[in-house]
Amino acid sequence: MTFAVSSTDFHYEANNKAHHTSEITGQRLILRRGQAFTITLNLHRGSQPEVDKVQLIAETGPSPSEASGTRAVFRVSGPPVRSSWSAAVQNSSSSSVTLSVTSPANASIGKYFLKIQAAKGIPQTSALGEFILLFNPWCADDSVHMQKDNEKQEYVMNEQGLLYRGCAESFSPSGWNFGQFEEDIVDICLKLLDVSPNYSKNPGQDCSRRSDPTYVGRVVSAMVNCNDDRGILLGHWGNDYPGGTPPSRWTGSVEILRQWSLNGCRPVKYGQCWVYAAVMCTVMRCLGIPTRVITNFDSAHDTDGNLTIDEYYSVSGQELKLSNDSIWNFHVWVESWMARPDLPAGYDGWQVLDPTPQEKSEGVYCCGPAPVKAILEGDTDIKYDVPFVFAEVNADKVRWVVGSDGSKQKSYSNTRLVGCNISTKAVGANEREDVTHLYKYPEGSKTERDAFARAVRKRNGISDITPNGLDARKPPASGVIELSIKLQKTPVNGEDITFYLHIVNRNQSSKNLSITTVAQALRHNGRPEDPCWKNTQTIKIGANRETKVTLLVPYSKYGASMIENDIVKLTAVANKEGSNEMHMTVKDVLVTNPTLSIEVKGTPVLHQEFKAEITFTNTLSETLRNCLLSLSGIGLIRTKHEIPILTLGPNKMLRVTIPFTPTKPGSRMLTADFDCNLFRNVKAFKTVEVKRVY
């Protein structure tokens, strides 16, 4: 009797453990490319274990072909062959044959079918089973190879992390559950690739190109937003979120991905930049590409590509919407680790990918991968989208005051205000790592200014340029008025914002100044709301003198604007009486909300119920209404707990105990969120270590 297979043992648990996918499941085969796996072929009684007379077939995609690299036919021959599929006998008996099968390190990722057929004569093909193949950062020949184990643990294996939000002078982390190893997430991520326009246009070519992390990164960047396709998230920046979830309420990616998949790939409402980036991080880590979330404070959105951000203000201090350029309080994207063989040497490593739909790249709302090294050096001729990302971290800023007759006067030019405190979670710790130095040289240094000049030159194809902007380290010129805003204490939601204007007259004569100060709630994308408070007064300041003017923005004026915003822009404009001379200062102020806390008593043990206690105190002078408290955690809570609270009076404490039963061991994160009618951005996280009991 010829070689005939009765069944196949794919050794799910052993293979998945060796391939770092056992966190996903032990019930099916999920592999990483470039690494051997073991299968045992159980033979029919009387069958001859002559493996040299059979060959294996591995196929992926709807129309697999050897020419496109989506079909491989290979004999059981011996040791692995680099850049091709191979198989070798490990053990053989009269009833079974155990094989070691190795995929090439440049194989396309995706779902594969494994078959067997006779090597000679009329081919009779039998199906052995299926498996999923992912990128492999543990394999030295894989283009996503990452050398350090602790970095692979953080950027591939860690199912939770921190996202940084706020403004450049005051920001804080919030917890996020990535959940890339929840069992259904790998299927949803592959589904995401299958519903992309690239797949619809040419499935065979798309599956073939899935061997390249650069290509996969661009596809995922486009598919996380829904602007061109059947992507995951619909973006919305405003105060109302009809028929959906406010972006600030999300605490993890799994709920979003499942909702998208279960609803027929219809977009989930709603996302903003940190939600887009966190979901993309989940997808990329799930597919095996090391990825981390990056926050850039004072992030420029340069719509005209001139690497300069222009802002316009009225003589009364109100920011005017005369330019599509903007500076976001913060913007969030991801970096993914990969080689870039499509570029000249020197651009391997971290690559910026941004799924937030801002500008089109080659006709599609996606961004990157842009090598971080190219951004640092100002190499804006390198693909993809380096000029746009360079501007986000290093554009020059010019501020204009618009007169009542429409005339524009340059108030201020600065090279240092864009791209501050660029942040990510540190490896192996719930701490912040500052990565600003990877994106830009020290502000104002010759190296940084040279990089800016190079960026403009390469962007515009010109031979030489003198960078715009003033060096902010130079002392102020004599004969000017200086304005600055200083807070008297940290602003707290529910309390008045108290601050003072510091005014310095460096002229040799006294000045009469008309000073207008305006407060505007600021959306995180840099777009201001209408003014909620305004103050105008006239002062006389002596020659070479300085003075302070104390001011107060009442809570009754700004409070209604804080539902979706937590930043107030304070702008002061000083007009010299009898002249067109104007001076301006601006300060973005983060208004902090009441705090939420999580406590876990004792040590959580796998599969044993524990309790988390959440506390929140309403420090405002008015009753909170329509409150919603939620708690979630990958490997801790199967379904998010949501508890509605109708009202919470002034100075009242809310204390809620929620049970949870850990399903995964190791370091896990509980994340809590509190929303109400007056504010939404109240979060807490708690890391717990789940122990096994043997």
From TrEMBL:
Pfam families: Transglut_C, Transglut_core, Transglut_N. Transmembrane segments: none annotated. SUPFAM superfamilies: Cysteine proteinases, E set domains, Transglutaminase, two C-terminal domains. Residues 265-357 form the Transglutaminase-like domain. Belongs to the transglutaminase superfamily. Transglutaminase family. This is Protein-glutamine gamma-glutamyltransferase 5-like. It comes from Huso huso.
